[in-house]
Amino acid sequence: MEKVMGLASENGLVIFSKSSCCMCYAVNMLFQGIGVKPVMYDIDQDPEGREMEKALMKLGGAAAAGPVPAVFIGGKFMGSTNEIMSAHLSGQLVQMLKPFHHSMS
Amino acid sequence: MKSSVHIIGYEFELEKYASFSPQTQRRLAQNREAARKSRLRKKAYVQQLETSRLKLVQLEQELVRARQQTTYTTQPNGAGIGTFEMEYAHWVEEQHKQVAELRRALQAHVGDVELRMLVENGLNHYANLFRMKADAAKADVFYLISGKWRTSVERFFLWIGGFRPSELLNVLLPQLEPLTDQQHAEVCTLRQSCQQVEDALSQGIERLQQTLSQSMALDQSIGGSYRVQMAAAIEKLEGLESFANQADHLRGQTLHHMARILTTRQAARGLLALGEYFERLRALSSLWAARPREPT
Hints:
The structure holds 2 protein chains of 2 kinds.
Chain A: H1 2-10, E1 13-17, H2 22-33, E2 39-42, H3 49-60, E3 70-73, E4 76-79, H4 81-90, H5 92-97
Parallel strand pairs in A: 1-2
Antiparallel strand pairs in A: 1-3, 3-4
Chain B: H1 2-18, H2 22-68, H3 77-107, H4 112-146, H5 152-156, H6 165-176, H7 181-217, H8 224-261, H9 264-290
Helix pairs in contact in B: 3-4, 3-9, 4-8, 4-9, 6-7, 6-9, 7-8
InterPro entries (chain B): bZIP (IPR004827), bZIP_sf (IPR046347), TGA_domain (IPR025422)
Family (chain B): Belongs to the bZIP family.
Keywords (chain B): Activator, Coiled coil, DNA-binding, Nucleus, Transcription, Transcription regulation
């Protein structure tokens, strides 16, 4: 869990993913489409991957489809695909990402 | 008790009866017989009605119970889809009723309270569809995203198992005018966000296709590598269920936000326009299938 939170606070925008996860790729594409570039951290490439996966499962709760994608904005856990999609449609996501814009899309 | 009174009355009648002419006596007897037969027929008819009514109530209760049951998750794959097809047919019937109801209500200029109820019903009905589709995706995701359960023209517009929400917004917009400037801005923002999510999901599925294709192209038939290759491919395909669910989640969210942006009356008009659009597409599918063709 510490590794997860550590990485999350080091990087403003992190998506924990797996190299084989195409939904993680989709969420990454969404962020890039709105003009930000998140850090993609593949937990299956990390020696502590199993522990990280368990930690992410706990954060996601029973409703999440899986441990990844797990999105952190400003060190805070934002949720998975469902939450990110909802946040974008409500306009909240763009607001939250304002400090991370290097270019307006 | 009744018989003794009857006998006393009968004796009284007998005296009167004896004074009538034979023709009159015969006519009276015939009338009595006819009346008796009529009473018996009526009794039988009423009994039939009662039995039918009870049967109807029983059937109605069974129908409600059957619809409430969730049967997909406890049945093997094939059976789950059969149930979905049946449920979807009911869904379309109910949709048709709701569309007619909306049309009637808008023409009759009913108040906002009643319209609000109709709008809520309409939104819930779509939510039910997405729930049904989520269950079907668990049973057979390929069936769901192939759109086999939809008519041919609907399938032509297919995007991850249903309609493209941004395209539906384009269909609806002209029907909702006049909109305030504020509403216009909000709808445009919604449409743009919708398109961005659609693009992201489309790119995700494309990537799934590419990586799957690449991994299948490798010949790993030697030893355990084949099992590993296939296991990895299966894990990939399991990801498809997420895409189907997210596409429906997007559709549901788009409807929700439109209902929030619009007034009750506009939302009712929107739901009517949407329902009629789908009905027209389905009708077109039937007409297309039945169109006259040159004998080959």
